[in-house]
Amino acid sequence: MTTIDRRIIEFIQGHHVLTLATCTGRQPYCASLFYAYLEEENVFAFTSDAATRHLSEALQNPAVAGAIVLETKTVGLIRGLQFQGMLFRPDKELTRHARRAYLRRFPFAILRGTPLWTLRPTFLKYTDNRLGFGKKIIVTL
């Protein structure tokens, strides 16, 4: 099992919105989602209605990509994560764990009642200019 660099984990845990990119029929699309990250399972958990464009596309083609970024005007502080992964509906055990983590982070989500989804990254590219201009840490899982 490949180990994910601790700096990547801390970056993921320090943020709460990711951009999810999907593609079907040669037409790309993206959406912003609140997420909770489950480190032990290495999955992002989020809720979204299956009727949304991003979910309906991901159900047709579960291979997705995305990004998490830190907004800053200071070039030396730029940090961001780009990833590829697979979207899936979690099994019962993972659903319980992921739902708890998601609701701890976003308690208002309980009112929506939308389905829970998980995304397991298969490739991570983390850029951190604090380590040197353009420094990247790449992990293939």
CATH superfamily: Electron Transport, Fmn-binding Protein, Chain A
Per DSSP, the total helix count is 3
CATH topology: the name is Pnp Oxidase, Chain A
Task: Report the end-to-end length measured between terminal Cα atoms.
Answer: 8 Å
Shape: globular
Instruction: Kindly report the average pLDDT value.
Output: 95
Alpha-beta classification: alpha+beta
Alpha carbon gyration radius: 15 Å
What is the CATH-assigned architecture?
Roll
> What is the CATH first-level class name?
Mainly Beta
Number of domains: 1
Biggest pleated-sheet summary? 8 strands, antiparallel
Low-confidence stretches: none
Can you write the helix and strand succession as a string? HEEEEHEEHEE
Tally of DSSP β-strands: 8
Helicity level: 10-25%
Strand fraction equals: 35-45%
Question: Which characteristics define this entry?
Answer:
Pnp Oxidase, Chain A; 8 strands; 141 residues; alpha+beta; eight-stranded antiparallel β-sheet
Structure description:
By secondary structure, the chain is α+β, with helices and mostly antiparallel strands. It has a single domain (6-140), classed as Pnp Oxidase, Chain A (Roll). The protein contains three helices and eight strands, in the order H-E-E-E-E-H-E-E-H-E-E. The chain has helices at residues 6-13, 53-60, 92-105, and strands at residues 17-24, 27-34, 36-38, 43-47, 63-69, 79-88, 116-128, 136-140. Strands 1, 2, 3, 4, 5, 6, 7 and 8 form an eight-stranded antiparallel sheet that branches. Strand 3 and strand 4 (43-47) form a beta hairpin. The protein is globular, with a radius of gyration of 15 Å. The N and C termini lie close together (8 Å). The mean pLDDT is 95.
